[in-house]
Write a structure and sequence with these properties.
The chain is mostly beta strands. The chain has one domain: Methylamine Dehydrogenase, Chain H, CATH 2.130.10. Helices cover about 5% and strands about 55% of the residues. The chain is built from three helices and 35 strands. The strands form eight sheets. A five-stranded antiparallel β-sheet has the order 1-26-27-28-29. The radius of gyration is 21 Å and the shape is globular. The two termini are about 20 Å apart.
């Protein structure tokens, strides 16, 4: 079973963190890159709420090969700019052509225009591949727009960050956090199923035992921290969740195999604990460390925690991964997890360096490998495992083309831009 974790969008198992402290550390490179790319679109094409099929390029031969396959395919998405354009630093972005390209096992199969006139964002975390199709979300000044393969599916009032998207047959379910304050909505094909004017989401929208589930919290008015009242939603039914009287803070919640799993701080315990049914498991942490941010994920039936802690003695921050409370690996300071994926109970993750001259790290099932020099991971879902082989989308910091790293081998993508996601999926239908 393959799952992909990256920070609060559901892309066939993708999870992304909302934690601001962690985001600032993890994605310092992403912020610089995405800001430079933020408003790019194809100039010279008329504005329309629905791009014509002529604006969307499709490779027929690649489509035929992909459609006939009965095996999973590794899809990569990336943003393509004109040759010679420095997408990392040029501020003249609004007049520059930009496209979102989909690759299937390294073959380009689709290209859609990007920009406000096409309602497709250059943000690396506002698109996903599900079932071989490209789903995008976009926030206008007053609406949220969902597209499939460049064509509008639906739109609705309110500016939301779509942190969960699940496809069931012909139906598309979305979970969106308000961009203008608290509150969220849960929808089917754009039609409202549940709305809360207050409340912040934990994680994403997941399928568990054929049920769509998510969790959220409402503060008690005394703190901005995620403390107060906690709720779990299963198939639209809201139930309050009581983690226990001794719980002082809940970091994250998720549904797995009919259970609600909770990661929380407990009164008089220095380390966070995993609450799973009647079981309580403390994370393996020393007394001199304090947790800054953490999120849950599943590795097979094991409960994983991806966190950043601070050594109180020297002030250094470290990324760390735990499985069922036991420390799996702790990384050197100045490296932060940007993408994480699992296969069964094995864990892989990609770490960017927080230092300008530092090199990133690829962690593959217990093995640590230095990232190729001059490359970084852009976005939160740039890793996936296909047939036991780790695929990592890496983008050049020094002007080269992006590459797909596959267990040490490197395939170059012929675009001037960066890789934004990697997804293993069945071929499209």
């Amino acid at each position: 079973m393959l799952t992909v974790r990256a920070p609060s969008f559901a892309v066939e198992g993708v999870l992304c963190s909302f934690d601001e402290k962690r985001t600032m550390k993890r994605f310092s490179f992403i912020i610089l890159s995405a800001v430079a790319a933020s408003s790019c679109g194809l100039s010279g094409i008329g504005k329309d709420d629905r791009p014509s099929r002529e604006d969307i390029w499709t490779n027929p031969s690649a489509d035929n090969r992909v459609d006939s396959s009965e095996f999973s395919i590794c899809y990569a998405t990336g943003f393509d700019y004109p040759d010679g354009y420095d997408w990392r630093s040029d501020v003249e972005r609004e007049t520059v052509k930009c496209s979102l390209v989909v690759f299937a096992d390294g073959i380009p199969v689709m290209k859609v225009p990007v920009g406000p006139e096409y309602e497709v964002s250059s943000d690396p975390d506002m698109h996903r591949i599900i079932g071989g199709h490209l789903y995008t979300d976009y926030a206008t000044e007053s609406e949220t727009v969902i597209r499939k393969d460049g064509t509008q599916l639906f739109r609705y009032e309110g500016r939301e960050l779509v942190c969960g998207l699940v496809v069931r047959g012909e139906d598309v379910y979305t979970l969106g956090q308000s961009r203008d304050g608290q509150g969220f909505s849960y929808r089917k094909n754009g039609e409202l199923l549940l709305r809360r004017e207050t409340g912040c989401l934990f994680g994403t929208l997941v399928e568990d035992r054929d049920s769509l589930c998510f969790s959220f919290y409402e503060t008690d008015g005394t703190s901005s921290e995620n403390s107060g009242r906690y709720y779990n939603v299963v198939e639209g039914q809201v139930r309050q969740f009581n983690p226990g009287r001794d719980v002082t803070k809940v970091w994250d919640m998720l549904n797995h195999d009919g259970e609600i799993i909770c990661l929380a701080n407990i009164y008089r315990k220095t380390a966070p604990v995993i609450l799973r049914g009647e079981r309580m498991t403390s994370l393996d942490m020393t007394i001199s460390t304090g947790m800054l941010s953490c999120r849950l994920f599943m590795a097979g039936d094991k409960v994983g925690v991806d966190g950043v802690f601070k050594n109180q003695r020297n002030g250094f921050q470290h990324s760390c991964i735990w499985l069922d409370g036991e420390k799996l690996v702790s990384f050197d300071k100045d490296c932060y997890v940007s993408s994480l994926c699992t296969m069964d109970e094995g864990v892989c993750c990609i770490l960017n360096s927080d230092l300008e001259s530092g090199r990133g790290l690829i962690y593959r099932f217990g093995e640590e490998i230095m990232m190729p020099e001059g490359y970084s991971s852009v976005g939160c879902s740039t890793s996936a495992v296909k047939d036991g082989v780790l695929h990592v989308g890496l983008s050049s910091l020094i002007g080269g083309k992006p590459v797909i790293w596959k267990d040490g081998a490197v395939d170059t993508l012929d675009i001037n831009g960066h890789v934004s996601s990697m997804t293993v999926s069945l071929p499209r239908k």
